[in-house]
Amino acid sequence: MIVSDPLLSIQNVSKTYHRGPHELQVLCDVSLDVFAGDFIAVYGQRNAGKTTLLKVAAGVEQPDSGTVRFAGLDLAAMSRRRLAQLHREEVGWVRRGGPQSQDLRMLDYVALPVLGALGQQAAQQKARSALAKAGVDDCGFECWGSLSDAERMAVALAQGLVRDPRVLLVDDPTAGLDVLERERIVALIRAVADEGRIGVVMVVPELPSMLRARDVRSLSDGRLLAPDPPPGGYGVVVDFPGGERSA
Amino acid sequence: MLGLLVERSGYGYDLQLRFNERFRFLSLSEKVTYKVIDQLRDEGWIERDKTKEAGKTERGAPRVIYRATPAGREEFSRWIAEPCEISIAREEVHVKVVLSQPPDWPRVIELTEKLEKTCLAAMHELQAGGRPTFDQLSDPEIPWDVVAAVLVDDAECARLQGMIDWLQRTRIVVRHRMNPPARRTGRRA
C-alpha cells in the first residue's frame, strides 16, 4: 500500500497566550496529520482552542514550539510572500465573517480571493461555480445582510473553495443552524472531502455535527484526543432478572 | 424481544442477531436470548410457529420458530404505552471522582482522558455510511427500522456529548485544583 505524505502535518505544537502577567496555554503538544480526502472533525467547547488550532494550522499564528508543515514544507521557514501565496491559493479558510462592505454582491465577495490572479471575468466565473457547488448559486446578486445564517455559511464555504485549495479549514460551520441546515452544510463539506483531492479539518462545538466526518478528535484544555475503542467493547450490558450478563 | 416477534416470527439465533443489529449499543448473548425466550413462552406471550419451516441448526436439530400470541401482542401494546423511567446516570467514574483524594487526581485525569477517547470511538462508530439525514426521515419510502436506528443514534450522540463535556470539565477542574491558574480576565481562542 502506498501511503502519501500528509498535506498538512502538525507535530507537537504548543501555544500559549500572554495576557499581562498571566499565561493561557491554548494548545499543548498537539499533533495532527491531514491527508487528501480526509475529513477530520474536532469537537471542543467554547474557548477550548479550536480557532487557535486552525490559525496555527494555516500559519496565521506561530506556535511557541512544534512544527507545522504544508506539503512537507515548514511554515515557520516560509517567507512572508510564500505564506501569503499559500493562503491565497492552497488553504481555504471557511468562517462566517462576511464582507466588510455590506453592499458587496456575494458573487464579487466569493470572487475576491482569486480576483488578482484571474481578473474579474474569470474570477466571477469561478465564483459562480463555487456558489453552485455550495448550493447557493441563487445568492450571487444578494448582499450579506439579506442572507440567512445557513446561506451565509454556504457562501463562506464557496469563498473557501473558489481558490481550489488543497486544505480546507472550517471554523464552526453549524453555529446558529437548526438540525436540517446543519446536516446540509456538513453534507456539503463531506462531499468536498469525498472528491479525494482536498483535506478538510472542521472544528465544531457540538457532537452531532461530527456525524458525517470520517475522523473525530476532541480538544480540551489544550490537548487533542483521538478515539481509542476499548478492547472489550463498550461495556453496555443487557441484564435480565434471572439472566446472565453479557458484554 | 417480544417486540421483535410481534414484528415477525423468528428463531433464537435470528432473534439474537436482530436484537444486536437494532440496538447497536446493547449486546445480547446466546444464553440470555434463550432464557428470555423461555420466559416469554412461560408467560404465554410467544408460541411455537408450526406453520413455518426453518430448516435445521448447524448441529442438525430442527430450528424452532416462535411467534407472538394474541396475549403477547396485547402485552406489547400495553408496554409501549406504559410510562418510561428516566434513569439518572450514575456511572462508575462519578463514584471514583467523588471518592478521589488529591494524591489520586493525576489518575483521575488519566481516567477521564481514557474515557473521553472511548466516547470518541463510540461516536466514530455512529458514523455509519449511507445513514439518512433528518431531512429524509419523513420519507415514507424509508423503512421504520432505519428511521428508528437514526433516532437512537441521535440519542446516543447526545449522551456522548454530555459525557465528553462532563469529562472535560472535570479534568479542567482537577488540573486547576492541582495547579491553580492565575485569575483570568478573558480569553480568545
List keywords for this structure.
heterodimer, A: 247 residues, alpha/beta, Rossmann fold, 6 helices, 25% strand, globular, B: 189 residues, mainly alpha, Arc Repressor Mutant, subunit A, two-stranded antiparallel sheet, 3% strand
Task: Provide a concise account of the structure shown.
The complex is a heterodimer of chains A (247) and B (189). Chain A is α/β, with parallel strands linked by helices and 247 residues long.
Sheet of most strands of chain B:
2 strands, antiparallel
**Spatial strand arrangement across the major sheet of chain B:** 1-2
Q: What gross morphology of chain B would you assign?
A: elongated
Mean pLDDT of chain A: 88
Helix amount of chain B, in percent? 55-70%
Low-confidence stretches of chain A: 240-247
Pattern of helices and strands of chain A: EEEHEEHEHHHEHEEE
Q: Which class do the helix and strand fractions of chain B yield?
A: mainly alpha
- Tell me the Rg of chain B in angstroms: 23 Å
Strand order of the largest sheet of chain A: 6-7-8-3-9-10
Radius of gyration of chain A: 20 Å
Folded structure, characterized:
- The complex is a heterodimer of chains A (247) and B (189).
- With 247 residues, chain A is an alpha/beta fold.
- Chain A has a domain at 8-97 and 166-225: 3-Layer(aba) Sandwich (Rossmann fold).
- In chain A, 31% of the residues lie in helices and 25% in strands.
- Chain A has 6 helices and 10 strands; from the N terminus they run E-E-E-H-E-E-H-E-H-H-H-E-H-E-E-E.
- Chain A has helices at residues 50-58, 80-90, 106-118, 120-133, 149-161, 179-194; strands spanning 8-19, 22-34, 39-43, 65-70, 73-74, 91-94, 167-171, 199-204, 215-220, 223-225.
- In chain A, the strands form 2 sheets. In chain A, strands 6-7-8-3-9-10 form a 6-stranded mixed beta sheet. A 4-stranded antiparallel beta sheet of chain A has the order 2-1-4-5, with helices on one face.
- In chain A, helix 3 (106-118) packs across helix 4, helix 3 runs parallel beside helix 5 and helix 4 (120-133) crosses helix 5.
- The two termini of chain A are 35 Å apart.
- By secondary structure, chain B is mainly α.
- Chain B has 2 domains: 2-81, Arc Repressor Mutant, subunit A (Orthogonal Bundle); 92-178.
- A two-stranded antiparallel ribbon of chain B has the order 1-2.
- Chain B is elongated.
- The mean pLDDT of chain B is 86.
- Classes of the chains: A alpha/beta (247), B mainly alpha (189).
